[in-house]
Specification:
The longest helix has 21 residues. A hairpin with a 2-residue loop joins β5 and β6. This protein is an alpha+beta fold.
Length: about 200
């Protein structure tokens, strides 16, 4: 076997392996691994609540910090200032006396728990309540969530999530016709929380 043939063969094998790897379908475990990879993700958000009774959406802005190990800080800046913390232990709102728990049975609490599962890539948790359909590739994917249980079917018609390295867009379609669109902008990954973020998520 000549050196030239060996080089050609090595190149052909490399090309074949790369082609096979690229041909593998992007699946839910890969998506979960991709989204749960960064220790911390920070960015801005714009949330639009489209209500059937209003001609224009209700829009809010703020910043978020997602920690893989601790939970989510959702810091609303406009139209009012209000801080929320979402962790596996529950949902809390910052008040004059510090963080105060939100009713875990409320509809908004349920949405926030789902939101945390979506952002953290917990597809196993989502699969307990939804049928999941994933399309696309690691750089541009779309995940459709269709509720299974009767309770969730009363709230949501479906939920659509889009993203790449991180989640960039979440759209919730409610059964009565209202719609919520959340866009996550300028997301940056990090290896650790800041000192103030650690305090907020540890309280």
């Amino acid at each position: 076997m000549t050196p030239l043939f060996k080089k050609w063969l090595a190149a052909a094998v490399l090309l074949l392996v790369t082609t096979i790897a690229m041909a593998q379908p992007f699946d839910l475990p890969q998506l979960a691994g991709q989204l749960s990879g960064p220790a911390v993700v920070r960015g801005d958000f714009i949330q639009e609540k489209h209500l059937r009774a209003l001609p224009q959406p209700l829009t809010s802005h703020g910043q978020f910090t997602l920690s893989r190990d601790h939970g989510l800080l959702w810091l609303l800046q406009q139209p009012i200032r209000q801080d929320y913390r979402i962790t596996p232990q529950g949902i809390a709102r910052r008040g004059e006396q510090g963080w105060q728990a939100v009713d875990p049975q409320g509809g908004s609490a349920r949405q926030n728990q789902l939101f945390l599962a979506v952002l953290s890539g917990d597809t196993q948790a989502l699969q307990r309540d939804f049928d999941l359909q994933l399309k696309g590739d690691p750089d541009a994917w779309r995940l459709q969530l269709t509720p299974r249980g009767a309770l969730l079917k009363q709230i949501f018609a479906d939920i659509e999530i889009q993203g790449g390295e991180t989640v960039t867009r979440i759209e919730l379609h409610e059964t009565q016709g209202d719609r919520t669109l959340i866009r996550l902008l300028d997301s940056q990954t990090d290896v650790a929380l800041t000192a103030s973020e650690q305090r907020d998520l540890a309280d």
